[in-house]
Description:
This protein is mainly alpha-helical. The chain has two domains: 3-59; 81-222, no CATH class. Helices cover 54% and strands 3% of the residues.
Amino acid sequence: MAxxxxxxxxxxxxxxxxxxxxxxxxxxxxxxxxxxQEKWILPVLGTDLYNKIKTLISAGTIDDGGNEIYATLLNTxxxxxxxxxxxxxxxxxxxxxxxxxxxxxxQEKWILPVLGTDLYNKIKTLISAGTIDDGGNEIYATLLNTxxxxxLVQFSFMEVxxxxxxxxxNNAVVAxxxxxxxxxxxxxxKPLISTARDIASWYKERLIxxxxxxxxxxxxxxxxxxxxxxxxxxxxxxxxxxxxxxxKSEAEALLRxxxxxxx
Length: 263
């Protein structure tokens, strides 16, 4: 296989981690993947590292001993789809394949910046190994179950709402309908997204407060170095008013400048 045809991610992975779903033809996805990696990933990695990764993938040795630094860190879902369905208004009929991308988006977009890279990866490693509830890991289990999961559930709900009304097929993006009713417009679901964001932000604030108050309990919270994502304590924000106030004489001078001198 020519090196130019090596793709860094499989079409099945793109389907799994986005809203595309399983009905899209892999032959449609291959050109998009190749185009994306050449356009966006190559400039980040540089030619030598990019070709190194492609060579290891092509040889099937990316996961061999000695290549750990090149192996892609596996994406671990912090919460199962069933938890999002249980703790939100989604219900059991929503396809897990629609939910998985929303969970991944939410945890990378909203949870990673709060935890920072080191603590985020620590939690993912414990979940992946199935040792989060083992003795000695109680502090991480508390952080996960009491603070991270409630926050992530609501952000996942917020992320999935816009895509519930559409599906991707080979030749179109279609609005979904059911026997019980028709698909609503985006304007109809805006209030739902806003409410979900408010609830998620409340849980995020609680998570931030807990970590700030217990930062010494989690060494990974303060161990990040460049280029890691450092934890942020920012949550609620509001617009900055930069409008200048004028006194009476300044206002009159400005008015004369705009309207011209009186005659």
